[in-house]
Amino acid sequence: MNLLLINSIGRQKWGGGEKWMVLAASELIKKGHQVHIGCRKNSILEQRAKESNVPVVRIDIYTDFSVLGYYQLKRLCKRYNIQLIIGCQNKDVRVSGFMSRMNNGPIVLSRQGVQLLNNSSKYKWSFLPYCDGIITNTNSIKNEYDSYGWWDEDFVKVIYNGINEEAQVKEQYDLSQYIPAGIENPLVIVSTGRLAYQKGFEYLIDAAKTIVDKHPNVFFFIAGEGKLKNMLSKKINQLRLQDHVHLLGFHKSVSSLLNAADIYVLPSLYEGMPNSLMEALAHGLPAVSTNVNGVAEMMEDGTHGYIVEPGNTQALNKAIEQLIVDTELHIKGERGADHVKAKFSIDQMVTNLENHLLQKLSKKVL
Q1: 246 touches 268 (CB < 8 A)
Q2: Which of 294, 304, 307, 297 is nearest to 336 (CA)?
Q3: From which residue to which does any coiled coil extend (predicted)?
Q4: Under 8 Å CB-to-CB from 31, ≥6 apart: which residues?
């Protein structure tokens, strides 16, 4: 197959969708397919793709009606004989789909790690005509989309993300600079993600206040960059949590940080299938997560940790407290690791993706 994966996300943005794209492209190349990633020049996505030896092409799509993007795609499809395009942003799909319809071009699919459509005529008439199918990573998104009645049951395909166990390192990040030497049995709680409203870190910081007052040996570490950095720092200072809650900034090797943790927390207000939680479970960490899309498909409440409702500081506090005092903490972590490694392997993800794309192409030929 000759594939083009497009993501017009901003140059400095990096998240689960971008990780999936680089991983999927890299693994499909290993299977003998020709794959290019189309993205903005000098973006983090471009850098990570090149580090994984995935060919990168420049595509500039800033709006739903990008003339430049249209002609870039047209040239690329001709040059590389592209048979199928996967777009990660709605505008990527619209521009690609319009180009394809005008030139009898490749199949265009949308890959959605979070819900990007709602049941409105806006999407039915401005998105659906340019899209040949949707790939998502949760049944909850598929069920929501299928309820709109816009397509048959095969239009939305669920392909779970895969855990890249090769990316796990043995090194443990040194957190000793943040933990006073006199603290006995320090317990480390880690959370990762962009410092954005979606990630719910303000609720985690609120929950941390009561916890550290009761358990002075507990320390929270949040790894990530984003627009809310100053606001979150101010909140930490206002609650006098400077010694117990630390913003670590961007971490290229999250694996080493997870190796240093005892508990993982995902306080997000909305997500797709959260890669960060999957990675934490794979590292053997018991977790507290909000009940956002895909989480109930990934972990079992009470067995691998606890699932709480988004935006509820009291529930988040209670669940974290339960893990802190849990004498079977490590057993929960081991169960979680076994579960995600069995259900969410790279081989399963890539095989299911490859089979789905080949099926789409075979139907077009027929």
Answers
A1: no
A2: 304
A3: none
A4: 350, 354
220 and 285 in a single domain? The answer is yes
Residue 321 CA to residue 298 CA, distance in Å, equals 22
Same domain, 304 and 259: yes
DSSP state letter for 158: E
pLDDT at 164: 74
Query: What is the CATH classification number for the domain harbouring 239?
Result: 3.40.50.2000
CB atoms within 10 A of CB 340: 24
Count CA within 13 A, CB hemisphere, residue 187: 20
**Assessment of whether the complete model's pTM goes beyond 0.85:** no
Cα(67)–Cα(60) distance, rounded to whole angstroms?
9
d(CA 60, CA 210): 47
The count of C-alpha atoms lying within 13 angstroms of the C-alpha of 272, restricted to the half-sphere facing its C-beta, is: 23
Contact (Cβ atoms closer than 8 angstroms) between residue 41 and residue 122? no
Type of residue at 49: A
How many Cβ atoms sit within 10 Å of the Cβ of residue 216?
14
Number of domain units in the chain: 2
Ranges of residues in the chain whose predicted pLDDT is under 50? none
CB 294, CB 140: distance < 8 Å: yes
